[in-house]
Design goal:
single chain; 253 residues; alpha/beta; seven-stranded parallel beta sheet; 10 helices; 7 strands; 48% helix; globular
Length: 253
């Protein structure tokens, strides 16, 4: 879809979500943006309105299934959604002494349930129209479990594989599905990292890569390529070769 006119972006109050909202903002475009910080979200909305877009915002927790279903049903009823970017997510790791059950469950609830809660309320209408596009924010961390972020890696692996399967399932119904797998991108999420982040990308540059990939209906939008190559190699090598070095790697707080 070269130019979607009705776009939903979750997690739009900062990072990649914010950059994508600003990038897509243009006269005639309707943006439905969600986030958890009302002040930051409204700041993003103002930038998008200045570019000519019609913008509505909602402060919502993507793990709230009913709230998400009600919001998305209303958005689609007002203007049928062309593009959903299921971007909202959270990250944490074992750098503060290990991953608690509470932390793991919260990450999984936001990163997995949040994606499902974003996709499924819109699917019936997209199927009926036989059109639409879905973008799922995974990560290069979803190709190999890292001791520094178990729940985060697991959540991104799940949504990556789910999106790849969903793409094939919906291909005959006119609905495109792309899985986005970024490496390190400047954001509030990476700003807390206390370790080197190879090939760290500017947020605006990452958003442009994503948009180009979506315009081409690419199955997997993975970047930057040097980091992608490293991660693929780690995934291919036997765990006996990689477990030791990975245990010594810095851990996310």
């Amino acid at each position: 879809m070269k130019q979607p006119w009705s776009i939903v972006i979750t997690g739009a109050s900062s990072g990649i979500g914010e950059a994508l909202a600003v990038l897509y903002a243009a006269p005639g475009v309707r943006l439905a943006l969600s986030g958890r910080d009302s002040a930051r979200l409204e700041g993003v909305a103002q930038r998008c309105r200045a570019a000519g877009a019609l913008v509505e915002t909602t402060v919502i927790d993507v793990s709230d299934r009913k709230a998400m279903a009600d919001w998305l049903a209303r958005v689609d009823a007002d203007t049928p959604v062309d593009l959903l970017i299921a971007n909202a997510g959270m990250s944490a790791g074992t750098g503060d002494g290990g991953e608690t059950e509470e932390q793991a469950r919260r990450i999984l609830a936001v990163n997995i349930d949040g994606v499902l809660n974003s996709i499924h309320p819109l699917l019936p209408a997209m199927r009926e129209r036989r059109s639409g596009q879905i973008a799922i924010m995974a990560s290069l961390a979803g190709f190999r479990g890292l001791p520094g972020a178990p729940a985060y890696c697991a959540s991104k692996a799940m949504v990556r594989v789910y999106g790849e399967a969903l793409r094939g399932d919906l291909a005959g119904e006119g609905i495109g599905v792309s899985v986005i797998c970024p490496g390190f991108v400047k954001s509030r999420m990476t700003a807390v990292n206390r370790f080197p982040m190879p090939f760290l990308m500017e947020t605006d540059a990452a958003a442009r890569v994503i948009r180009r990939g979506l315009e081409r209906n690419r199955a997997r939008i993975a970047f930057p390529w040097p980091m992608m190559a490293v991660v693929w190699l780690l995934a291919l090598l036997p765990p006996a070769w990689t477990d030791g070095p990975l245990r010594q790697a810095p851990r996310k707080t």
